[in-house]
Specification:
Blueprint lengths: L26 H15 L5 H18 L5 H26 L7 H18 L4 H26 L3 H20 L4 E3 L5 H5 L10 H27 L7 H23 L6 H19 L1 H11 L1 H6 L4 H27 L1 E3 L7 H11 L12 H19 L4 H28 L4
Antiparallel strand pairs: 1-2
Length: about 425
């Protein structure tokens, strides 16, 4: 006997209500009901990865006794910048339901071009950085052209790009294969600079601005939904969400100030995540990206220039990868032939997926890159602290990635059964 709801005309299940149109009951019962609805529909959001981060912190703090010390947490926020920026680029491509295998090579080529121009050719370093990022954007445009206009599968195009840009990286660096960063140069300071040279006011300022910006965005969204006759979050819920963010932000600022203050890599990564999230969710182009990832034919019928959107996405992805390559070069002190190789690409892809971006397109957020990279770097740092072999790190990261993909697949299947797939 079917337990699903039926229409008066027959036994077909009734279409599920759009969750954005549901009005939550007040009080704790309303939140519990909303949580049960989300679980049944497979819409867990970032909850699994947040719980995972808490579990990782508790486990490694229990084992090491100093995982949550300020200097260790500061290092984690610095180390995630380079890989995290590449992962943000991965999110853009995954939203289309595609994959880009060239981003590690693009990061290495951009760092090589920038370093050779600035160090060997004597070009102004800011201009060299700009030219390196433009070169990365051109690489992405080339990938997008062959994929969107010629019809070559993205997997093949970016695999060819991975080989080609690795060759370009080797060619640009020349026989020595390494170019050290300029002493006191821009790239050299990307990884080790703290705003205000450690002045504690900057961390507090970022925390206050983040909370204030979140509150303003929540109030504006609620006002717009109310004006449009749609259900909006009540003031009490907005206050609760803002208070929770305030606790996290202020605790983070206090922790960073126990060490050296607000690191520049964290500011850049957060700035890129916020900016790209705004572009994807609040602009017409961003909505087109989601539309193309959700269904190409439907996007075409809606009047979207699919080819142009795809080319722009590959350009944005490659540019972010190039910026990430500069931070990696800063972290290791030089641009060399190995930069962008190894596990760089796999870590960036894993971070995006672990953070909640779907491999099947049309669903995800650039915040997932930040959350996923925090998970990977926390695991790596914790295992380093207990002197675990690198093989163990790879196996654990692989298991976490598999769990994220399984969760994504189950979530999609649950949403389809709930009439929202």
């Amino acid at each position: 006997m079917s337990t699903g709801r039926t229409t008066p005309a027959g036994n077909a299940p009734a279409p599920a209500a759009d969750p954005r149109l549901l009005v939550r009951r007040g009080g704790a019962a309303g939140y519990a009901e909303d949580l049960r609805r989300r679980i049944r529909s497979g819409d867990l959001g970032s909850l699994p990865v947040v719980l995972g981060l808490i579990l990782i912190a508790v486990v490694f703090q229990s084992v090491t006794g100093h995982f949550l010390q300020a200097d260790n947490l500061t290092n984690i926020t610095k180390w995630i910048a380079g890989y995290g920026l590449i992962s943000v680029g991965v999110v853009f491509v995954l939203l289309l339901g595609e994959i880009d295998l060239s981003l590690g090579s693009v990061a290495g080529a951009c760092a090589a071009i920038t370093s050779v121009l600035a160090v060997r050719q004597g070009v102004d370093e800011w201009l060299a950085i700009l030219l390196g990022l433009l070169a990365a954007a051109a690489m992405g445009a080339l990938h997008g052209f062959f994929f969107a206009r010629i019809g070559v599968p993205a997997f093949v195009v970016t695999l060819a790009g991975m080989l080609a840009w690795s060759g370009l990286q080797d060619y640009v660096l020349g026989r020595l294969g390494t170019v050290n960063n300029l002493n006191e140069g821009v790239v050299a300071h990307l990884d080790n600079h703290f705003l205000g040279d450690g002045d504690i006011v900057f961390a507090w300022l970022l925390a206050v601005l983040s909370v204030g910006g979140f509150l303003a965005a929540q109030l504006l969204t609620a006002r717009r939904r109310t004006a449009a006759g749609l259900p909006a979050r009540p003031a009490g819920e907005i206050a609760l969400r803002t208070g929770a963010l305030a606790v996290v932000a202020l605790a983070g600022a206090w922790t960073l100030n126990q060490d050296s203050g607000l690191p520049l890599p964290l500011v850049v990564l957060l700035g890129v995540v916020v900016l790209t999230d705004f572009v994807l969710r609040r602009t017409a182009w961003g909505r087109q990206v989601f539309a193309v990832g959700g269904g190409i034919e439907a996007a075409r019928r809606a009047g979207i220039n699919v080819a142009r959107v795809r080319i722009a996405v590959f350009m944005a992805s490659a540019t972010l990868a190039g910026l990430g390559g500069l931070f990696i070069a800063s972290q290791q002190g030089s641009a060399d032939k190995l930069l962008g190789g190894g596990n760089v690409l796999m870590s960036a892809i894993a971070a995006a997926v672990i953070g909640g971006t779907s491999l099947f397109g049309g669903r995800g957020s650039t915040w997932s890159a930040l959350l996923g990279m925090l998970v990977i770097q926390s695991i790596t740092t914790g295992l380093d602290m207990v002197h675990a072999a690198q093989a163990i790190q790879y196996m654990i990261t692989g298991a976490v990635l598999l769990a994220a993909v399984v969760l994504d697949s189950v979530s999609r299947r649950t949403q389809k059964s709930a009439g929202r797939g």
